[in-house]
């Protein structure tokens, strides 16, 4: 049985007893957004991160979703990528390819991966150029409150330190305002080179989902969602605040175990 509620500042919370339940709810959520976006715009522009997220999306590759989702209208992007080759074990592209792309009938030209033959800086610039071209053709929407792209959905997971995409706590990249895609060469967890969406792009999306499972994330979930006071710099996950879009947290019971009780079950 899932607990669902809305935190007044931090979006909708969906708390699940087990990963199986979380995965089914996540698949339902993505399929519904896909259908609505295709009906409204004729396309579904979705950006993915890495980590445990892709495994938890696995239900999409099974019945009924593998037949009912309009996969031909999907355009896949990466909210962040590691500075490694596409066939490297650390590659988010490889993770998504193995866990999703190889299992559903996506159009190959609709899979917009980050160029792994370039330096991190060049790859970030190149990816931003690709996205700008697709905004011009309205494959990706455009925000009506900024010049940022308006992805239909950005799916993120969160690390135990509260990082999302490759936006790490207390890192200068959190202040990036002018770029859509940027890079870092000093990631606190390997590999050091990363390409990442900036916060303005994440916060311009129509929908953002943060998917978190495991007891090791519980303290970060608490700091990202609950009212914890102004004493320390906010975690990157807390800085995910869609300007006009919707934010949903998909949590398992362990990840939600340190949330203030009144907020986790409203």
Automatic annotation (TrEMBL):
Entry GO MF terms: 6-phosphogluconolactonase activity
Pfam families found in the cross-reference section: Glucosamine_iso (PF01182)
Enzyme class: hydrolase
A single cellular component GO annotation: cytosol
UniProt keyword Hydrolase, yes or no: yes
The protein's Enzyme Commission number: 3.1.1.31
Catalytic reaction list: 6-phospho-D-glucono-1,5-lactone + H2O = 6-phospho-D-gluconate + H(+)
Keywords for the protein's UniProt record, in alphabetical order: Hydrolase
Span of domain Glucosamine/galactosamine-6-phosphate isomerase: 20-249
Pathway connected to this protein: Carbohydrate degradation; pentose phosphate pathway; D-ribulose 5-phosphate from D-glucose 6-phosphate (oxidative stage): step 2/3
Entry's Gene Ontology BP terms: carbohydrate metabolic process; pentose-phosphate shunt, oxidative branch
PANTHER family: 6-PHOSPHOGLUCONOLACTONASE, 6-PHOSPHOGLUCONOLACTONASE 1-RELATED
Recorded family membership: Belongs to the glucosamine/galactosamine-6-phosphate isomerase family. 6-phosphogluconolactonase subfamily.
NCBIfam families: pgl (TIGR01198)
Protein name: Probable 6-phosphogluconolactonase
Organism expressing this protein natively: Manihot esculenta
